Amino acid sequence: MKKIFSLLTVLLFALGFSQKLSNIQSGEELNYRIHYGILNAGTASLTALQTTYKGQPHFYVKGYGRSTGAVRAFFKVDDIYESFININTGLPSFYVRNVREGGYTQHLETVFNHNNQTLILTDKETNSIRNLNSVKGVQDMLSAFYYLRSLDSLDLKVGSVRKLNVWIDDEMFPFQLRVAGVENVKTKFGHINCLKIVPQVISGRVFKDKEGVTLWVTNDRNYVPVLVQAQLAVGSLKASIDSYKNVKYPLNFF
């Protein structure tokens, strides 16, 4: 299970150019239940609050993932992700990844300078600081998720592909999302019409193939993820929506 739970958390949270965050409202909270095979493996949550960062309107977004039950007994996970996202551009200003996964820990902070396409990476465990080159429109793992949710419906037509550069840990990764179709998905609240999105991921070490992950988001202006399924090299993971509140537009379950 080492790092597998964290990978699904990344896919929930991440999953360009500037995009105003118009479909998110302050106080939104999304909670998910995570299963590894038949095991109840953990929970993940996302919250968004409007605030000010360096004099500019931002969303302070926090993602928290933890293992639960029998999984936590032999593999304790407590992952915290934080991001300050500029509301007018949809780009991250400050990003934190602070994770504990079994015996593995990492605490990184990143400051983004989008004007000159650089970033400052601080490793809080080693007290080291690096100044690195970036690229135009770079997203972090949380801001990428909210960027996707703020796109216009014309940008998420079936067959369309969105490409992003996402800052993960201490590296930049090209990321691609393909809208594969429209499906009705069963949830604990009933069925809901969804866009089926397939992220392109690195195959071999964890996932069975480069399109071994599928994400279903509501086919409305919210684009709330309701289900994620990942076929791993060993076993499978599933995350399903468990509760939500303060979503900007009504969710039409049937």
Automatic annotation (TrEMBL):
Q: Write the signal peptide boundaries.
A: 1-22
Q: Origin, by domain of life?
A: Bacteria
Which keywords does UniProt give here? Answer: Exonuclease, Hydrolase, Nuclease, Signal
Q: Which GO terms describe its molecular function?
A: exonuclease activity
Task: Report the InterPro entries cross-referenced here.
Answer: DUF3108
- Name assigned to this protein: ATP-dependent exonuclease
